[in-house]
Write a structure and sequence with these properties.
The complex is a heterotrimer of chains A (about 120), B (about 210) and C (about 170). Chain B has about 210 residues and is of the alpha+beta class. In chain B, about 45% of the residues lie in helices and about 25% in strands. The longest helix of chain C is centred in the C-terminal third of the chain and has 15 residues. The chains are: A alpha/beta (about 120), B alpha+beta (about 210), C alpha+beta (about 170).
């Protein structure tokens, strides 16, 4: 059965692009969120198998959202997908509970493999 | 209290230019990946310029430009401004969406989102490079977008970014996709103390 | 034999950001690409003398080093007026037309401080009203950049906006 994905990114364009890549590669995109607050809400509502999470977002940033989701569901699988590739950021995200970190721009394969590996 | 802009000497400006060079070089690599095309960049220019001259680096006041602005907060407050002339913006959108050149005629909501995201990714690349060089961690605001006369977008981007001085410290470069059809301009405006901090982290003292 | 007056070549004096200038009829004063900045056209219709300013920030008293008086309405307007009077204008005859103060940028971030445009407009109006200068036209706010072409021949102000018809103030 296809894994359910929640896509979180403030850029509509990026959400569209990720949705396109994932849908064509065996994933079922069940929802989208444009900021950290919406991310936490939708996670609880949709209970996805995996989440792709941006960092720089309005209202609440991605790392804070990761912490909140992990507090609600310690088994949550979250893959960061951000333009911010700085070492400190990556470490902070992983420490917050993210399973992987993809820096934009990314190759399609990178995203697919990261999600497949995390949800295996 | 940091130094004033006027007291920056040629050596310091050159250092800034080099930092900018590495940063933008990273950004250009990212852009090349996104487009799957070769992207070239010009040697960056760094200087302390009056606001009016900043605009003249790119074009005339009434030329139509898309402008993506991001404010960098935290330890090293700065401003990033990414500019694309109308035709370049349209063509960039075509390329990123795998459409034929000339398909995109207008910049609507989705196109705006795309351009903001490109600006975001480019800024991210620049900051990653800076961070690696200096050990400083930067945090970025969500990108802001405007499409209008060059004079209006640059002056507003700078003033709303919190830069009120008569002169601004600028690192500017222009990059182009191999057939010259996408020309973009990047302005990095660091606060003066940021320059001090960055140079200090590289072992250069002002 | 008729004596012909030599034709005066109409000049366009460009006013840049944080600058200002004064001209007499029939010349024009022009400022391009007003974003959050406000263009201030002052005119004495009897003497046909005009002054144009391009302010970028609302209040000079908030800055310790405000050596450039053209940046703020509270410092620029008195200077422009003073020069106009030196050229022969009568202070009491002067009227104003203003344009600009737009919110240019759109962002998802609700905390974005895009209020400089409206503050510039507010302060400009405050200064003009405080000096008893009547504002006969204003085209402010919105999201568009504007170019102002001020004609000292008749005090008219032509506004150019991207993608829209020109507007006469």
């Amino acid at each position: 059965m296809a894994k359910k994905v929640l896509i979180v990114d403030d850029a509509a364009f990026m959400r569209m692009m990720i949705k396109d890549i994932l849908s064509k590669n065996g994933f079922d995109v069940v929802g989208e969120a444009a900021d950290g607050d919406e991310a936490v809400e939708k996670y609880q509502e949709l209970n996805p198998d995996v989440v792709t999470m941006d960092i720089t977002m309005p209202e609440k940033d991605g790392i804070t959202a990761v912490k909140e989701i992990m507090a609600i569901d310690p088994a949550a699988i979250i893959i960061m997908c951000s333009a911010m590739g700085q070492q400190a950021m990556v470490m902070e995200a992983i420490q917050a509970g993210a399973k992987d970190f993809i820096v934009k721009p990314f190759q399609q394969d990178r995203v697919i493999q990261a999600l497949q590996k995390a949800t295996a | 209290m940091g130094k004033s802009l006027d007291s920056l000497d040629a050596f310091q400006l050159e250092a800034l230019r080099e930092i900018g060079n590495i940063g933008v070089g990273n950004a250009v690599t990212s852009l090349a990946e996104m487009l799957s095309k070769k992207v070239d960049m010009e040697v960056p220019r760094a200087g302390v310029l009056p606001l009016q001259e900043v605009m003249a680096l790119v074009g005339d006041e009434e030329d139509e430009f898309a402008c993506i602005q991001q404010i960098i907060e935290g330890e090293a407050p700065s401003l990033m401004i990414f500019l694309l002339e109308k035709e370049s913006a349209l063509y960039l959108v075509d390329m990123m969406m795998f459409k034929d050149k000339g398909s995109t005629q207008e910049l609507g909501e989705m196109e705006e989102s795309l351009l903001k995201e490109v600006g975001n990714i480019l800024s991210g690349s620049i900051l990653s490079a800076f961070s690696q060089m200096t050990g400083i961690t930067f945090s970025m605001s969500v990108p802001a977008y405007a499409y209008d006369m060059l004079g209006a977008v640059i002056s507003t981007a700078i003033v709303e970014g919190g830069y009120y001085a008569d002169k601004v410290l600028v690192v500017e470069t222009c990059f182009s996709e191999a057939s010259e059809e996408i020309r973009g301009y990047f302005f990095i405006l660091p606060q003066v103390d940021v320059l001090e901090k960055m140079l200090a982290s590289l072992g250069i003292n002002l | 034999m008729t004596i012909q007056e030599p034709e005066v070549e109409i000049r366009e004096y460009k006013v840049g950001i944080a600058q200002w200038d004064v001209a007499v009829s029939p010349h024009k004063l022009i400022t391009l690409g007003l974003g959050s900045c406000v263009g201030i056209a002052l005119y004495d219709p009897f003497a046909k003398i005009g002054g144009l300013g391009h302010i970028m920030l609302p209040d000079s008293t908030q800055f310790t080093r405000n050596d450039n008086k053209g940046k703020f309405p509270d410092t620029a307007i008195p200077l422009i007026l003073e020069k106009m009077v030196r050229e022969g204008a009568r202070e009491r005859a002067v009227r104003a037309k203003i344009a600009g103060g737009a919110q240019m940028f759109s962002t998802a971030d609700k905390k974005y401080m895009g209020s400089i445009g409206s503050r510039n407009v507010e302060k400009t109006i405050e200064v003009l009203e405080g000096m008893g200068i009547k504002i006969t036209a204003k085209e402010v706010g919105g999201k568009n950049g504007r170019t102002m072409i001020f004609n000292t021949l008749d005090g008219s102000v032509l506004l150019r906006v991207l993608g829209k018809e020109v507007k006469m103030l």
